[in-house]
Write a structure and sequence with these properties.
The chain is of the alpha+beta class and 604 residues long. Helices cover 28% and strands 20% of the residues.
């Protein structure tokens, strides 16, 4: 009898703990289908209608748990509408489509960002097993939630989201696919969707790649010399790449004195980040092939009119800085420490000295998308709350003369200037021959941070827009330095992959988008080139931070997107004349969806 009573009490305790851990579970399996169309489409669900027992104060819970299925991989916003303020948001990106998944979404990211990450991607993106999400804000408390909204900007092909469960939880219930079947096929394609051209057999893939290789070496006259400069131009020759303003236009000048514009794709073999030929293992193998994919990269780059990145072509180096024992706050290290100075010197010597006499090297990038811009007060708090460092001592001394948000920002900007000055001086010490291409600033760069870029030979910025005119012109105005676009892309939400940061409705419009972006940029006097991000589509189940975008020149099986390739070839043939002012730039905006195109993908 006692044993039976103990079992009953134990079971009651388990049920009680479950109720505490997983409250507000919706018992109904009713499926709500939300359809999206137009420019900005949103469905707002009243919390009391979803579950009368669900509280409006969510601050005591840790996760919003949903079971949902989407007909499209297109990203969507989850908005929490509050009675005590403006709504707060997290951006959700499902892996794939047409499969039920559980999403256990941490509520903390509606309230604010955490303090991790050294660049924008690592600071903003978070991955799970069935989706990833980005923390773009706006943020706020979640003590008075009245409704939850699901919104999609410029939905493509009238997608839908089905929701069959939604509740709050104090524990992570796990994010996973709920249908126990493979989500990828043998070619690493999304298994639960079909589309024209999808690989169905190894024979099909082998034939397509073999047919393409027959075109390699085809005579295509872009009028390039051995350094990919324009053969019929003449400027001062220095034996290395340098920059000149000629007749009011900025140009790279190649080692033989020919004018040069740098066009390439991040991730195209070893030409973006290391010397060509030293990183073959990272680019080997399509999903079904053991042959070195890199062997197809250089012929493609040349055939498509690219000028940077392949074997025997001009290349760039992304410098990586040795980590120190001191803390690093959103990309800002202990810049006033002697250890940091020694680490920079050692890193620059190791990385720059081997390249200093190579005429094929265009120059060095010294960093990428610092994450602390706009978060200077947070960084100051992190420094003050952290261990004793030289930078902390400097900050405490500075704030003793007055502690205001503006003074905190001024200190962080000054520390960043110290960081750049040390890096640039040290790089030039070990390689006086090549260009400093700067930090590839991303996002909405503040005026103060942009002014620090005057120290570079070239200012590089990453601009994810339909056209980058305003950002490029503003950068030139604040820095006086010619501009290289370090990253841009346009993608399509289809085939299990998201669209990327800038969306086109289909592959044909993606080609139009390439032409529009590049030629509009090239018409500016300060333009020096642009690099597409990235060479290959991201994995359907996401990279390290979750991103799973259709942004490649080639797909996951190394097959080129023909519409994008043909558009790039056309534009690259026109690029010299566009930049010279001899012809007008291509002026047709791409369509984001059948509803049209926003002025900026960041409006929503």
């Amino acid at each position: 009898m006692k044993k039976h009573l103990n079992i009953v009490l134990r079971n009651l305790l388990i049920l009680f703990l479950i109720e505490i851990s997983f409250p507000s579970v919706t018992n109904s399996q009713e499926v709500r289908k939300l359809a999206f169309d137009g420019t900005l489409s949103e469905h707002k669900l009243i919390i009391s209608d979803l579950d009368p027992a669900m509280p409006s104060d969510w601050s005591g819970y840790s996760y919003l748990v949903m079971e949902l299925r989407t007909t499209s991989p297109q990203r969507f916003s989850i908005w929490l509408y509050r009675s005590n303020g403006t709504p707060v948001r997290v951006m959700m990106h499902p892996f794939g489509q047409n499969v039920w998944l559980r999403a256990s979404l941490p509520l903390q990211y509606f309230v604010g960002m955490d303090k991790s990450g050294n660049d924008l991607a690592s600071a903003n993106n978070r991955r799970t097993n069935s989706f990833w999400f980005s923390t773009w804000g706006p943020f706020g408390d979640i003590t008075a939630v009245e409704s939850i909204g699901f919104a999609m900007a410029y939905p493509v092909n009238k997608p839908a989201i089905e929701i069959r469960a939604l509740h709050l939880s104090k524990q992570d219930e796990g994010s996973e696919f709920l249908e126990k079947q493979p989500v990828l096929d043998e070619f690493n394609q999304w298994a639960h969707a079909d589309w024209p051209g999808k690989i169905k057999s190894r024979e099909q893939l082998a034939k397509e790649l073999a047919d393409e290789e027959k075109t390699f070496g085809t005579a295509t006259d872009f009028n390039y010399c051995e350094y990919s400069g324009y053969k019929n131009t003449t400027a001062k020759s220095s034996g290395f790449f340098h920059i000149e303003m000629i007749s009011g236009k900025w140009w790279f000048v190649d080692p033989h004195g020919h004018l040069f514009l740098s066009m390439g794709s991040n991730g195209a073999g070893a030409g973006f980040g290391v010397r060509p030929g030293t990183q073959r293992s990272t680019t080997r193998g399509a999903a079904t092939s053991s042959e070195p994919v890199i062997d197809r990269i250089t012929p493609r780059l040349k055939l498509w009119g690219m000028t940077t990145g392949g074997q025997g072509m001009p290349y760039t180096v992304m410098l990586r800085w040795q980590k120190t024992e001191g803390p690093n706050f959103l990309g800002l290290p202990d810049v006033y420490s002697e250890e940091f100075a020694r680490a920079i010197d050692q890193s620059a010597n190791t990385q720059c000295s081997p390249h200093k006499d190579d005429p094929l090297l265009l120059g060095y990038f010294v960093g990428n998308e610092p994450a602390f811009d706009g978060r200077e007060s947070e960084v100051a708090d992190m420094i003050l709350d952290g261990p004793e460092t030289a930078t902390k001592a400097r900050l405490k001394e500075y704030l003793s003369q007055g502690d205001t948000p503006q003074r905190r920002k001024e200190f962080i900007v000054t520390a960043f200037e110290k960081y750049l000055d040390l890096i640039c001086t040290t790089v030039k010490k070990y390689d006086p021959n090549h260009l400093n291409l700067g930090i590839r600033f991303g996002g909405s760069v503040s005026d103060e941070l942009l002014r620090t870029a005057r120290i570079f030979d070239v200012c590089s910025i990453n601009v994810y827009e339909y056209e980058p005119m305003w950002q490029v012109e503003r950068t030139y105005r604040y820095t006086g330095r010619p501009v290289l676009i370090g990253e841009f892309h346009i993608g399509v939400p289809a085939n299990g992959l998201g669209a990327g940061l800038v969306q086109a409705k289909d592959q044909n419009e993606r080609g139009i988008a390439y032409r529009y972006y590049v030629e509009q940029a090239a018409s500016l006097d300060c333009f020096l080139g642009a690099y597409w991000f990235q060479w290959r589509d991201e994995p359907v189940l996401g990279r390290f931070d979750g991103e799973n975008y259709n942004i490649g020149f080639v797909d996951v099986n190394d097959r080129p997107y023909k519409e994008l390739v043909e558009a790039a070839r056309i534009t690259h043939k026109r690029l010299f004349d566009v930049h010279s002012g001899n012809v007008l730039p291509f002026n047709q905006m791409p369509k984001a969806s059948d509803a049209g195109t926003p002025s900026s993908p960041w409006r929503f």
